[in-house]
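2.7 Reproducibility. Because tokenized structures are sensitive to small changes in the input, we list the exact sequence used for Nickel pincer cofactor biosynthesis protein LarB, including any N-terminal residues retained from the expression construct. No trimming or masking was applied before prediction.
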Amino acid sequence: MEQQHLASLFAAVARGELSPDLAAARFAQSTLEDSLSGLTLDPQRAVRTGLGEVVFAARKSDESLLGAVAGLHRDGSPVLATRVSPAQGRLLLERFPQGRYWPVSCLFVLPRRLPGDCYAAAPELGPPWPRQGDILVVTAGAADIPVAAEAFGTLRFWGRSCGLISDVGVAGLHRLTPHLPALRAARCVIAVAGMEGALPSVLAGLLACPLLAVPTSVGYGVGEGGRAALSTMLCSCVPGVAVVNIDNGFGAAAFAAKMLPPAESDTACL
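Resulting structure tokens (single pass, no recycling of outputs):
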């Protein structure tokens, strides 16, 4: 919402011409349109839904990508972009040198702009990842790490307490045992697996917390780009398993963030 529009909205409330509830509703419905690059941004999405708009970089032109990040950052708000290619990462860093790019998770973060054109520190989204947290992301194999890192990084951007445990799948389940105390202390677990996709069922049979299953496209042949893992997870006989789309680490993070209210100790990048 432009500053002039926002000021007029506040003035109408002060004069008694507009109720605070109606003003909040109008604020939440405001959009920002950029006709040059075909964008209609939604900077007030967090007011309506609890989670702000995130830029999906894949298949965007350079002009649209830069316009989306600049538009959402217009008032100094932090911005998260997902599925950012290395070339797009270099482009964003050239235009926004205060940002950070993590090639493993394909995430770019432009942190909050503070008074005096200073910037807050970007959250650390890369390895080594903590192995405990309110939300734990767990991978079956090392090949699943990019999807898991997308979930972890998104949650960290939203200020959630989270960790990432990798390569503890059913090919060697004894690797899971040392992490059971942290897993049982978590409020939610995101299990990321390709191949046959069995890890979520194993974890759900051991844990009391809700479990979100993320199938990945890791595999070959009858794995069909993750469809075999997706079918396995959807057919789990263990209660309390919800499944998101193939390779959708971001979607799992968003579901976990909405399902669990933030703890007092959480510090949002927003």
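The radius of gyration is 20 Å.
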